[in-house]
Amino acid sequence: MQGFMTRETLLKWAPVLVLIFLLLVFPIFEMTNAWAKGKEHIYLLDSRFLSIRNLARIAISATPALMVALGVTFIILMGSIDLSMEGTVSVTAVGFAYAFLWLGGTLASWAWLAIPLALLIGAAIGLINGIVHVKLRIPSFMASLAMGFVGTGFALLLTGGDRVRVEDPLFRALLTVRWMNFPIMVYVAAAFLLLMWFIQTRTKLGRNFYAVGGGEELAAASGLNVNRVRILGFMLAGICYGMGGLMAVGKIGIAETVTGANFMFISITAVVVGGTALWGGIGGVLNTLVGVLIVFVINNGMVVIGLPSYIQSAVLGILVIVAVVLSTDRRSVSFVK
Amino acid sequence: MSFIKKHVEQATLNRRNFLLASIAGAGSLALPMSARPAFAADGPTIAWSYRNRTNPYWNAIVSGGGRFVESLGMSADDLVHLLNEGSSEKSLADVKALLSKTGGNLALGIDTNDAPNARPVVEACQAAGGYVTTIWNKTADLHPWDFGDNYVAHISWSDTKPAEEVANILIDAMGGSGGIVGLGGIPSNNPAIERRQGLDNAMAANGNTELLDYQAADWDTQKAAEIMSSYLTRFGDDIKGVFCANDTMAFGAVEALRAEGLAGQVPVVGYDGTAQAAEYIKSGEMQATCYTDPPWAGGVACSLAYHAAIGTFKPSEEPKGHREFYGPALVVSKADVDQFVADHIDGTPEVDWTDFWGPTTPAA
Amino acid sequence: MYELINVDKRFPGVHALKAVDFKVNRGEIVGLVGENGAGKSTLMKVIYGSYQPDGGDITIDGTKVRFQNPRQAMDHGIGMVFQEQSLITNLTVMENIFLGFEQQFVSFGVINWRKMADAARAQLAKVKLDIDPSTKTSQLSFAQRQLVELAKVLTLEERIDGDLVILLDEPTSVLASEEVELLFQIVRDLTSRASFIFVSHRMEEVLELSDRIYVMKDGEVVDVVEHDKADKESIQHKMVGREVDKEYYREQKQKPYDGDRVLLSVDGLGFAGRFADVSFDLHAGEVLCLVGTEGSGREAILRTVFGIDRPDTGSVTVKDQKITRFSAQNGVTMGIGYLPRERKVEGIVAGMNVYENMTLSQMGNYASAGILRIGEERALAEDQVARLSIKTPDIFKDCGGLSGGNQQKVVLAKWRSGGSEILLMDHPTRGLDIGAKEDVYDMIREMSDEGVGIILVADTLEEAIGLSHNIIVLKDGEVQKRFTGAPGSKPSLYDLVHHMI
């Protein structure tokens, strides 16, 4: 119980320690690489990996995934799982792009309405997810997976397999304009993270997520409308996916059916690696921030030190297992299904 | 510019309608049964069998088939579409069904979904007396000349040589020396292997260049952008050129450079000759791409089978180089991009569909 | 025969067993009692091989043994019947009995089910249970499952040479009294085959069944009492180190309730298969006990009154308002609070801290436009922690880490501070040690004084008699008899049992 480094404290901070460890370990490889080539290299000081420019690159890469991971964080906090993110991101991205172009094609016109529209589309998909899950009593992973496929199919239907380009310089300023070395999209993401943190810690809804995840029967017996909380959770997640779609379009200027591809693995990995328990009730959006950063620091760092890309997937897979092992009190769980 | 937009919109609209139609129940197999092509009494039915309509590449291929049908004075809708949806079994079954429906009076262009499926498809056509041209997939031991006249020809592409040309344009743009980073396709894909080979060949011929790193970005724009930004950290100003195994990855690389204000300053090349790549070449954000003219191949596949069927030429009398050949590859760079856009993107080139082998190179 | 000599066990910060001597003779039933945390469960885990002692010896017939795991202990004849039933409910009885030991029935890689069924029947005969071994375990009653569990442990008889020692960990906790009697009869008969170690919270049962009783306190064996010399009060005295006075249930604090103020009125309430035609009134300040065996409908009535289940017939009227919408949410809005039996499942949210748990049912009172006023939440929690002397380092402590008694106080604080005037309590003292139980009794009295109406399903009949103003005896979902229980004129145990069975 007493003592500074208890198991609980250690577990709580483990993701942050991993992140710091990674940030310090990649420069070591850089240094040895430089020495192998006979170049002078001072550890950390000469590191390109730890340069502001590279940190900005990591931040840009991580931004869309962070938005998506924030959404799924709430769902996992409730002890459910949402696998609709890939389809939802694609649909919101494509829906946004078409609406944006149709409404004028520049933020300086009514086309800005496409942004709330994208978030609305995300919320609507989340609403359907939630209703299907709660009212038809279908397990959340199945309901959301199915909705994800519907989303991908719908995006395909909209685009017919084409790529939709959003070239408005005002919108692309998300990527191209920088304040203090970081592009605007990073600040937008930070503001959104703050909003989600506020919802998590300061609102009834956020508290209810924890209550439902910590003990659904109890939450019900305390008079909570658990179904409503679940549906709202899926809607909030949908809005986050919508933000993810917007950021993805902002990042590469293209919306297409595959815009959402890969988000499922990366976002759930990030949530778990960040220390949010898969069975609900423990964790939060700040854990997810750390988790997303870990995933993208690894992705970036592996290329920076010159490891082939296929090793990255393997390393991430191992990391997920390690994270789950670390965060589970194995003594209390004798069998796992 | 506006024409491209209109063209794309029109094509997208058509495809969307098609997708909606297939949702409504007018499935792909139903098409050959319901659509009654208005052919001249004894002309063969003309058909294309391929994967699905959601892929821009296949849409381009089949649009050529439609143009060929139009050149015969019919409507493009008279081209029968057989969609295999990624199933070799469906591919073969649809072909057999159409052969029996037409009594063998069929001119077919087909990608058989996988290589082993080519043999049963070709054998079915020969047995029924239909004429077939295959594209992309066939096993190495299967040859048109072993089937008399019915297996008219096989069209594929070799990307090694064109990719080498594209790489040479990149190296020229770099001033002949410096570091190159590469973004490859899914490592096991044949085009990914051949395009990489093209880059290697070009660099071997030019001793002043260095391949800094070459990683797979799996044909994916976002992944390409991420790897490119990591390259920028690792190699910084040492990157003098970027070789991408296709255009979609090149767009990711351009966006990663744009984020750093470097778009247009570091040469980038791609492959596939997309309209967006052409725009980037015009604006200087890309240096080159390579256009394989899918509509031409899709049209000439039908044309070969059709003319063999009506007896315009006798395939068995043609040399092997006319039976197995590589499709066209048009390298596009700043110098010829305007011409390319005018010919292939804003306009549709006037094609003589009986000039079967004009832009091709023999593969056998 | 089986003996622990000078056994020590330490955990970080806790000296769980201090030089414990413990002995079981052949054919003997040994009782083990002690408060929560006295070291009973540690001792049991050492006996059946789940923990390894840090010091001292374990001997069987004078030979030193050391168990690395329960499997090794089983091979030496030590079997365990667990408190939380360890049968897998979707398997059949015989599959459960031979779980992990199916090899003996396998020929050519296939299980010979008939052979297994015959063997299972032989085991079931030992515990006098006449059921089809191919019955799904989920279809059995709790008592039957307990016997199956015992039969499963008795398979050791065939598997090993030497004597059996069987641990019974709270075997009666889910059984009704007649089932307990049956179980005891079987255990007594089985002493020809095995020795037993019997662990229970229920002192009377331990006294009745055991030949010798070990009394533990703070990791030590403080006394060993022979059956004939055993005396409940002296044992309790040794267990808790203090006298448990006759006023255990705070009878002197029981005051008459306000007969004019009806808080809750239940009329002709029925729920198919659970209970039928139940009517009663609950008044301000009244403690109403529902008494009956397991399955008599006590819990189902609580759940229906709260709103979790919808009744088929009858009506519930709360403060002159007839309830039409049955949901837990509506129950809470109407001022009803519910303390479920499974505190871990339905009582507190582990992972949420003290103040978060306290406002869980009343977040609306602490939020404006969905945004929580956390400062006020904390002030409430500080206040309640002080008033109820909840033992927690601070209000940011994870509730899952509190002791059972303090968890129960948090739950009570949640409902009381939320203004619930009607409290439904399902076994509020289950699993609590004596000190914590007394705290709960005090709280019940205090709430009565404040005019709260309480419907109670008590852990024991004594508790029900001691605490209640009125008692309703239920049997098979029907009201059998009503008793009033003013101090001094309370019904006897016999009165109640008479109508229960």
What does this entry look like structurally?
The complex is a heterotrimer of chains A (about 325), B (about 375) and C (about 500). With about 325 residues, chain A is mainly alpha-helical. Chain A contains 13 helices and 4 strands. Chain A has a two-stranded antiparallel ribbon. In chain A, strands 2-3 form a two-stranded antiparallel ribbon. In chain A, helix 3 packs across helix 10 and helix 6 crosses helix 7. Chain A is globular. The relative contact order of chain A is 0.18. Chain B has about 375 residues and is an alpha/beta fold. Chain B folds into 2 domains: about 190 residues, Response regulator (Rossmann fold); about 130 residues, Rossmann fold. Chain B is about 45% helix and about 15% strand. In chain B, strands 2-1-3-4-5-11-13 form a 7-stranded mixed beta sheet, with helices on both faces. A 4-stranded parallel beta sheet of chain B has the order 7-6-8-9, sandwiched between helices. In chain B, helix 9 links the parallel strand 8 and strand 9. Chain B is elongated, with a radius of gyration of 22 Å. The two termini of chain B are about 40 Å apart. The relative contact order of chain B is 0.12. The N terminus of chain B is likely disordered. In chain C, the strands form 6 sheets. Chain C has a 6-stranded mixed beta sheet with strand order 6-9-10-3-11-12, with helices on both faces. Chain C has 18 helices and 24 strands. Chain C starts with a strand and ends with a helix. Helices cover about 35% and strands about 25% of the residues of chain C. Classes of the chains: A mainly alpha (about 325), B alpha/beta (about 375), C alpha/beta (about 500). Chains in contact: A-B, A-C. Chains A and B meet through helix 2, helix 5, helix 6, helix 10 and helix 12 of A and helix 1, strand 7, helix 8 and helix 9 of B.
Quick tags:
heterotrimer, A: 337 residues, mainly alpha, ABC transporter involved in vitamin B12 uptake, BtuC, two-stranded antiparallel ribbon, 13 helices, C: 501 residues, alpha/beta, 3 domains, six-stranded mixed beta sheet, 24 strands
In a nutshell, what does this entry contain?
The complex is a heterotrimer of chains A (337), B (364) and C (501). Chain A is mostly helical and 337 residues long.
- SSE pattern of chain A, N- to C-terminal: HHHHHEHEEHHHHEHHH
Overall residue-averaged pLDDT value of chain C = 84
Domain unit count of chain A: 1
As for the number of domains of chain C, it is 3
Strand content of chain A: under 5%
Biggest protein-protein contact in the assembly: A-B, 42 and 44 residues
Secondary-structure class of chain C? alpha/beta
Structural class of chain A: mainly alpha
Major sheet details of chain C: 6 strands, mixed
Kindly report how far apart the N and C termini of chain A lie: 31 Å
